Amino acid sequence: MDSVTATEAIEKTDLLRVLGGYKGTCAFEQALYATRSKSLLSPLANYIQFNSVFGSGVANLAGEIGVRQHLFRDRCEEVDVFADRSVEVAAKIFYAAIGEFGDVCTARRSTHRTLSQATLRGAADFFSFPPELLKTIARPNRITTNAIATVCEGYGLNQTLSDRQIFQGIGFHLASETLADEEFVALDRILRSAYPELVANLEQAQLRVNGSLCSGYLWIRLHTTVEAEHSASALDGANLALRYYAGAESRVCVREWILEGAQHFAAIQSEFMEGLRSNASGR
Known about the structure:
By secondary structure, the protein is mostly helical.
């Protein structure tokens, strides 16, 4: 079996080293703590909108990987038709998109986008925001729309991707899932400590969105656990991609491409979170 050596594989410690200087989660926490009562809706709405494109980005990247049968191959397989492993790599990436689009194998069949809309609607109801005011408060600001555009670019949407961009996309996804785990845990912790009445209300509320009744807090609660699973799957996918890489470059080079993608996502996320913090503090 053609395996990845210790120097070629990406370990969790390698990823943490690359992300070691990331301060986005701290900025996110400061943005949430800087709000008072109704002003919470602005950073919350922008964070929800920022997250709205990730499922589609993941699905796109998985598709781009899955069709590249020439790029991911098992060199130990003698028969060509049995050698492609592109879908095996793609499956590890796509794992994060299953719930985003509504996992039919669970009782929770609403998409994560619908669940996030229920969270925002529930918070708006709790703070008695009329629809005309919510339209203004919940409208994504320039920082958010710019961040969304760069996330779409990082996941390769509407592009013809080179091999390097494919592997950078894998690293981009790996960092996004790893940092999302931190963010949702922080969001849950801060809301429970600073806005306990809101959380209690959302946990009890059933909001009608897209024709379905959804729990107002399920979007947040789910992401305090699933992101760690998605991060582990993405790391497995990165190492499968290295193992089955059949291109002209060395695995060491390809490994660096993956870590470049991780660094790129951290920079985008950090800038977005700093924008939330600045807006919340009135700077």
